[in-house]
Amino acid sequence: MTKTMGKKMFERPTITRLTPGMPSKHGVGIAVASIQFIDGLKIDDLIEKYGSPLYIFSETVIRKNVEDLKRAFTVRYPKIQIAWSYKTNYLDAICRIFHQEGSWAEVVSGFEYEKAIRNGINGEHIIFNGPGKTEAELLKAAKDGAYIHIDHFDELFLLAKVCQVYDVTARVSIRVNMDVGIYPKWDRFGFNFENGEAWDAINRIMANPQLKLMGLHTHIGTYIMTTDAYRIAAAKLSELAASVAQKFNHYIAYIDMGGGFASRNTLRGAYLSGEDTTPSFDDYADAITSAVINSQIKPDKLPTIILETGRALIDDAGSIAGTVIANKRLTDGRRALIVDVGVNLLFTSFWYDHKINPTQTHSGLVEETVIYGPLCMNIDVIRPSLMFPPLKVGDHFVISRTGAYNNTQWLQFITTRPNVILIDTNRQTHIIRKAENIDNLVQNEEIPPHLVK
Amino acid sequence: MKVNQSIAISENGFVFNPVTGDSFTLNNTGMQIIAMLKSGKTIEQIKEALLSEYDLDALVLERYLQDFITDLKRNYLLLEE
Prior knowledge:
The complex is a heterodimer.
Chain A: E1 15-18, E2 37-38, E3 41-42, H1 43-50, E4 54-58, H2 59-74, E5 80-85, H3 92-100, E6 104-107, H4 110-118, E7 126-128, H5 135-144, E8 147-150, H6 153-166, E9 170-177, E10 191-192, H7 197-207, E11 211-217, H8 227-248, E12 254-256, H9 274-277, H10 281-293, E13 304-307, H11 311-314, E14 318-329, E15 335-339, E16 356-358, E17 367-372, E18 381-388, E19 396-399, E20 420-423, E21 429-433, H12 438-442
Parallel strand pairs in A: 4-20, 5-6, 5-13, 6-7, 7-8, 8-9, 9-10, 9-11, 11-12, 12-13, 15-17
Antiparallel strand pairs in A: 2-3, 4-14, 14-15, 14-19, 16-19, 17-18, 20-21
Helix pairs in contact in A: 2-10, 5-6, 8-10
Chain B: E1 2-3, E2 8-9, E3 14-17, E4 22-26, H1 28-38, H2 43-53, H3 58-74, E5 78-79
Antiparallel strand pairs in B: 1-5, 2-3, 3-4
């Protein structure tokens, strides 16, 4: 909205009932600051130029996050490799920033594998995870020299067959699941450590000359808030590695600790803010590296530690800016704000209490507000309850820490998806994914002849 | 419409209704509107005053003023004459 010279900005009038003595679930001292800039660029200007809603990524923040993670590990351990988790965000421009920073690609499907190749990564720098690899995908990965992380016995047998039939060798690891003292225990992926399944798989791999055991992999879960779980997982994998060395005189090249580091978002239902409770990269690094160093693995045979950290590297580099469509009052007196960002664009609002700030200054008074998206669906709730200033129709806001999973798990549902832009390290903006239109979306549809007219 | 005469309004936007025991806070715009209502201004006069002071169009003002008046009535701060 343009501002007429000499006139004051209008904040819509509010009156808020005070309930003394009643502890609010939002605690005391609620202040909602305005966020006007991202990397020095005015959010309102970006919306004017690229439309609303708008995904905004900061290249500066991505590069800084990678640097911070690397530093946390390299000061404690000699060999570290990051593999960018494609499923967290596989927009090509984003992946290429990680690859420029030296990250390999960690993929979980043939589609993601192909994306990594197109992004200039050769097979020898691809980690191929996931429980659903096809025969053709396994053959290609084996030929390319990718690290195939075997998930289950049927895949192990299938890969052995592929190697025999096509006379190729494959570089493999096994994914190991284990009890690390947290709930839920992830035993769906990989071979179990405690019941000896992992050993059984290793024995079969070592007995097959066409399968080269390169490493051991675990992924203990997601959004792990306790570093002790990583300490236990690293200790168990190291124990397995030391036993393999003892039995087969074979030294594995790497231990892959998977992902799962938490970002600073606040989980739905969490009492304390994620900003206060999330462990730092240093905390995770200390737990993992000390467990490997203190294990029975010989010091001159220490394996590379591979990290598949996704969320913690990209979440705070992404934001979504949007616009208020309408104000409503619900029957219980609460305010409702309808905005143009729905759960179709912000899938993570099912998990997080996302941080939302207006892009303009306000008087400081806030009222309890529900924020709904624009979809004609009951599930479209961005925040069920928060203290928020009285925004008007047309006002802008920005939702922070939306970089992970929202550009991969987004839904093409009810409407099209908007522009995604990147602010580079020189503060130049680039569209990295154009807004969709109806032609993009119907191009794969076909109409049977009897329905043409 | 007139402001319930028994309520106390402080200069910084604190409102107390001694009949119900409820207290409220107003933001600056809310305070301004209540002050004008108390001084006996009509809704039309209030609209005029706000339009000349703030950067907004009549439709937006109409929308939010109506909202605010409903809120005041709901909380027994504004009485029908």
